[in-house]
Amino acid sequence: MNWIYLITAGLFEVIWATTMKLSHGFTKLNYTALTILGMIASFILLAKATKTLPLSIAYPIWTGIGALGAIIVGFVFFGDKISLLTWLFIVLLLISIIGIKLTTSN
User: Fold this and answer.
1) Which of 2, 73, 85, 106 could be 52's S-S partner, Cβ–Cβ 3.0 to 4.6 Å?
2) Is 68 exposed, middle or buried (0-12, 13-18, 19+ CB in 10 A)?
3) Alpha carbon distance 5, 8 (integer Å)
4) pTM score > 0.85 for this model?
5) Which residues cross the membrane (predicted)?
6) How many domains, in total, are found in the chain?
7) What DSSP letter does each residue of 17-78 carry, written as one string?
8) Residue 22 sits in which domain range?
9) In whole angstroms, what is the distance from residue 16 CA to residue 41 CA?
C-alpha cells in the first residue's frame, strides 16, 4: 500500500504543478484552489508513504514522478520545446527512478 500512496502522491504533484501554471500566478481562483488541494493531497500521501518507506527512497521517487509528469504535461499540453539532449536526460531520470525502485527491498 505504501507504494500506491507514493505513486499517487507523485501524480498529485503533477496535478498541482499543472494547475499552478494554469492559475496564471494565482490570479485564477479555481486553478489556485486546485493547486492548493493538489499540494495538500500530495504531501499527505507522501507522509503516509514515508511511514514505512525510507525517506531516501520515497523522496527521490516522489520528485521524479513529479518531474517526469510535469515534463510530459508541458510537452503534450503546453507545447514546451525539448531538445534531443534534454530527452536523453529525461530518459536517464526515468531509468534512475526505476533503478531506485528495483534496488530497494520495500
Assistant:
1) 2
2) middle
3) 5
4) yes
5) 29-47, 59-78, 84-103
6) 1
7) HHHHHHTTTTTSHHHHHHHHHHHHHHHHHHHHHTTTS-HHHHHHHHHHHHHHHHHHHHHHHS
8) 2-102
9) 9
